[in-house]
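Incident review: delayed structure delivery

Summary: a single-chain prediction request sat in the queue longer than the usual turnaround. Root cause was a stuck worker, restarted by the on-call engineer. No data loss occurred. The affected request and its eventual output are reproduced below so the record is complete for anyone auditing the incident later.

Affected input:
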Amino acid sequence: MHHLIAVTLALLPLAATAQDVVDCDWQARADNIAEPWDENTALFANGAVRLAKLDTVEPAMGGYHMLVISPPFDELGFRQCKVITWKQTIGFAGLDFPSLDANYDPARGLVFTIPARVAAGDEITDATLTFSLNQSTGEIAPRVEIGPR
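Output delivered after worker restart:
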């Protein structure tokens, strides 16, 4: 019994670390921005940071991703382009973009929180995606907490 509890406790952190931050690729196509655009995109930091909910349709239990276009700027003046996704680019089962909350933490940078849904085996469960963005370094630090909001 103690062995089963230890294994279960060892697996719990995995549920909170399954999100990934990847370079913009096929998910970040303009035609994947969820419609209507005005309800699924937002600007922050005087327009330097743009977030958008992406809907790639498939897989059915994970077709949503979060697009992050932000500083730092490259030598040509372009911002970095990143996608926050769930479990090796499978995607989230849902992202409630109208409920996106943004704050500023001097130690972490911009901090965003959004209600999400994730596939856990054959079931979809509620979760919360929180990620910080350091505009100076470009670091994006996501965390997903599984469970009711």
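Verification: The first helix runs from residue 2 to 16.
Action items: add queue-age alerting; document worker restart procedure.
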